[in-house]
Fold this sequence. Notes:
Layout: H1 5-18, E1 21-22, H2 23-30, H3 36-48, E2 52-56, E3 64-68, H4 70-76, H5 94-121, E4 130-131, E5 136-137, E6 145-146, E7 150-156, E8 162-171, H6 177-192, E9 222-227, H7 232-248, H8 250-255, E10 261-265, H9 266-272, E11 280-281
Parallel strand pairs: 8-9, 9-10
Antiparallel strand pairs: 1-3, 2-3, 4-7, 5-6, 7-8, 10-11
Amino acid sequence: MAVPPEIDHAVVAALFQFRMATAEQLRVLHTPGSGPELMRRRLRRLKEEGLVEDVVLPQAGKLRAWYLTGRGARIAARFPELEGVASPPLPEDKTEARLRVGHILAVTRTQAAFVAGARTVGDECRPLDFLPEVYHRYGEGPGGAVIPDGLLHYTTGGPNRALHRAFVEVDRGTMASEKLAAKLIGYARFHDHRPIPPHLRRTSHALSILPAWQQHYTVFPRLLFVLADTGERAARQRIRDLQAIAAGHPLVARMLTGVKAGAARLDDLEEHGPGAAVWHSLADHTRPRCGAWEL
């Protein structure tokens, strides 16, 4: 059976943008109506052509993660839909790929959940509607920037059709709660940051400078924290920690008067979809769970 060339193109583009993916993740993103073996066969052929490489995942039997070779990355970089997307750092060898794979696959899995959920309810979220690691600076030094795991574009359908943007943070429970909370504070600082030129800092004109984020967005993207590889009990504690920071930190509390923010388990997202009542509001811990676009 002939292989549609556009699917090969889409798979290579996804591996460029997401760095790594499993065959099942690529199947969900691009060929949900086909069986898993067809995607594995396609990847093996791309490997024979020198475009992709694979590594066996630790503690996962024979499950493999796939990533582009240098040749594959050079070809993908010329795809028009990838214009402006940063070239991913390629693993030096399979050992490096295996050590880096956990978080990268969790991010790819998150976007696959948004794509599958949108497909189910008639919304729009394409495989590449998730830009990893979009860099936004708000201050000096290594800590003066927010780098979300992804900037999500998602369009809800129906009579109230609307485009939503969200900064997505994927947490696998490997970092301390303080570091997760620091991410929320970083977003508050970015939300509040006004790049005032030195000659205006002591004048009344400084008050009229627009926040830096308005150079990129008409509305500040909502904040979605996705908890992957986390049991229900641990997830509840992580969410409570985020809600405590939201209530107790004045800069975060001020941001959340206008910015929508929530947290959900990835397992729930995959089972029910992003529009289902799986999201905990960070601004109001008393509110019942709701859909991502109802936060």
